[in-house]
Amino acid sequence: MEQQLIDDAFYVKQQKWGTFDSYDKDGKCIITSLTEENCISATRAYLKWKQDGTLNQKAEKTYESTVGGKL
Questions:
Q1: Which DSSP letter does residue 6 get?
Q2: Does the structure show a pLDDT above 90 at 65?
Q3: Domain membership flag for residue 17
Q4: Distance separating alpha carbons of residues 54 and 15, to the nearest angstrom
Q5: Are 10 and 33 in contact (CB under 8 A)?
Q6: What is the model's pLDDT at position 20?
Q7: pLDDT at position 28
Q8: What is the separation of C-alpha 65 from the centre of its chain, rounded to a whole number of angstroms?
Q9: HEC string of 33-54?
Q10: Burial of 57 per CB tally in 10 Å (0-12, 13-18, 19+)
Q11: Residue 67: its pLDDT value, please?
Q12: For residue 15, is it within any domain?
């Protein structure tokens, strides 16, 4: 089966266990997803953020938490 290049940027392949992986033109895995549609959508968003330079801004969220009361 021939792989189809999507958006001239990546390929999507279904794995034998049912998940879908996207790969760049060099064969590096980008995203793993449960459905093909979600894999394509998430890969497009990832590549856009990477191109815009906002990828690290999306991932750099920090959270703080405290537990009140007696343990």
A1: B
A2: no
A3: yes
A4: 30
A5: no
A6: 95
A7: 95
A8: 28
A9: ECCHHHHHHHHHHHHHHHHHCC
A10: exposed
A11: 76
A12: yes
Which two structure tokens, joined as six digits, stand for 45?
A: 């968003």
Comparing 27 with 59, the larger pLDDT belongs to: 27
CA distance 71 to 63: 22
The number of domains in the chain is 1
pLDDT for 2 beyond 90: no
CB-count exposure of residue 19 (10 Å: 0-12, 13-18, 19+): middle
Q: What residues make up the domain containing 36?
A: 10-51
* Assigned domain for 23 exists: yes
| Residues 6+ positions from 62 with CB-CB distance below 8 Å | none
Give per-residue pLDDT as tens, 15-39: 999 999 999 999 999 999 999 999 9
In a domain, 67, yes or no: no
